[in-house]
Amino acid sequence: MSKKAKENKSHDIDNKDISTENVDTAVTEDAANAVEQEEELPVEEVDETAKLTAEVDDLKAQLEKQKDDYLRLMAEFDNYRRRTLREKADLIKTGGESCMKAILPVIDDFERAMQAVENSNDVEALKTGVELIYNKFRAYLEQNGVKEMETAGVEFDADKHEAIAQIPAPTPEQKGTIIDCTQKGYTLNDVVIRFPKVVVAQ
Fold first, then answer.
1. Segments of 43-153 assigned E as strands
2. Bridge partner list, 197
């Protein structure tokens, strides 16, 4: 090979090396840019993901708290309902027991009165004894809120009285009023528990 040919071949090799080096440099720069872009985008995505994850965790915590509060409230309401039902049942049972217990002395008085009727001929003493029992029982009823309803001369009220008969009014002033009562009426704490049966003037 001639000297000139060798110089040309060497020059081609050098140019090839320079071109390869330029390509390698360009590839390296592109790769670096790509890496930087990859590193920049995931950071934003990670921040957004972290934010969303935090929000989801917060919502889950709120949901769990509300669920726990709901379960506690339901348990408390169920306990309250059961306790109220038990208290009502106890009140009815105890109220009836105390009512019956208070009547027993009246029964004792009636039994003594019946024994006195068999062994005594004193009508006035028997009458006095019966009146005492009657007054004692009325006092017991009044102490427990039971009161007799007034009817004599009272204006008839269909919501409070039960008319069993009507008669002509003796005077114009008595028209629409109660003339007679055939069965007394009673209220319990101002609520009618038995309507009086009355005769009304018309």
1. 146-148
2. 162, 183
Domains 3-144 and 145-202 agree in fold: no
- Supply φ then ψ for residue 149, to 5 degrees: -85, 135
How do 186-188 and 146-148 pair as beta strands? antiparallel
Burial 42-59 (b: 16+ CB within 10 A, else e): eeeeeeeeeeeeeeeeee
| Superfamily, domain 145-202 | Head domain of nucleotide exchange factor GrpE (2.30.22.10)
β-pair partners for 167: 201
Between strands 178-183 and 197-201, the pairing is antiparallel
- Both tokens of residue 98? 């105390």
Inter-CA distances, 19 with 16, 33, 59, 184, Å: 5, 21, 59, 128
pLDDT in tens, 83-120: 999 998 888 777 777 788 888 999 999 999 888 888 87
> Considering the domain 3-144, what is its CATH architecture?
Alpha-Beta Complex (3.90)
